[in-house]
Amino acid sequence: MVLTGWSVGERYWGGYTQKARLQSRWLVPLPTGMDTKTAMAIGTAGFTAMLCVMALEEAGMTPGGDKPILVTGASGGVGSVAVALLAKLGYTVHAVSGRPETEGYLRELGAAGFVSREEMSQPPKPLEAQRWAGAVDTVGGTMLARVLAEIDYGGAVAACGLAGGADLPTTVMPFILRGVKLLGVDSVMCPLPRRRQAWERLVQDLPGNALQSIAHVASLEEVPQLAEDIIAGRVRGRVVVDPNAA
Ligand SMILES: NC(=O)c1ccc[n+]([C@@H]2O[C@H](COP(=O)([O-])OP(=O)(O)OC[C@H]3O[C@@H](n4cnc5c(N)ncnc54)[C@H](OP(=O)(O)O)[C@@H]3O)[C@@H](O)[C@H]2O)c1
User: I need a surface site. Which of 90, 94, 190, 226 has the fewest CB within 10 A?
Assistant: First the structure.
């Protein structure tokens, strides 16, 4: 079984326990072909990335268009998995990162282009040149405003994060003049049938070798230091905490 969300680790204790008493309705069967370590390497972040891709697909996005898909906060957990998924599905993916040293990593995951955080953090005009067919945004704030202003006519943005801020200093122009769609994505209270669908899709669409470069294992003792590193932007991809690891 897999458990993510439902406020476990937020409102309920026990995020790193080896045994837990849980609501059965929170659990998703581990999909055939996936082991528990892989499931936790994917985790909430990878699951959310899959939900973002599904939202874009439902909004009509298909691979093979003449403009790329943008992923912001690309070397984080959601961003890394989104890059790998979209590339595997045949999209041309461009990755936004504030860490130039992650360019090689992101290209290995399938990114065809690299855009600096600085460039995408400039406050936009209400409409900018139409650069992207769509986007997965994990950052929010001014970056999401710029992404919206640069989306192609009829395109869509799946917004799931606030790594750069919870505000959204945009205008209605992308929506009313270009028909741009802003798609909200939540993983925490996501209904069970959609969770099952997303986990099945992850087996099918996330390359195993991508996860090997995205995730590494740490022990419980490393968690306090890891927490500081994550806040300071020093952690790339995903970390699996193994309570049995020394
Ligand atoms: N809606 C949901 O259900 C849901 C689920 C999971 C996560 N989230 C949210 O989604 C976001 C990403 O989650 P995550 O697990 O991927 O986090 P993460 O691993 O910490 O990655 C966040 C990434 O955002 C970029 N970033 C950090 N600070 C930034 C800033 N001030 N301005 C611009 N970019 C910045 C960094 O990427 P670069 O170094 O590459 O720039 C960082 O690696 C978080 O806000 C998280 O709370 C939401």
Answer: 90
DSSP code of residue 161: -
Q: What is the pTM of this model?
A: 0.97
Domain that holds residue 212: 24-44+188-242
Give the domain CATH number at 75.
3.40.50.720
Residues 223 and 123 in one domain: no
Counting DSSP H helices and E strands in the chain, the numbers are 9, 8
DSSP calls for 155-201: EEEEE---TTBS-----SHHHHHH--EEEE--SSS--HHHHHHHHHH
Ligand 1 mean position, distance from CA 78 (Å) = 7
For a mutational test of ligand 1's pocket, the pick from 44, 75, 78, i.e. the residue with the most ligand atoms closer than 8 A to its C-beta, is: 78
Give per-residue pLDDT as tens, 203-225. 999 998 999 999 999 999 999 99
- Measured CA to CA, the distance from residue 11 to residue 204 in angstroms comes to 32
- What's the pLDDT score for residue 20? 86
What is the Cα–Cα distance from 79 to 100, expressed in whole angstroms?
A: 15
Segment (H or E) for 217? strand 215-219
Domain count, the chain: 2
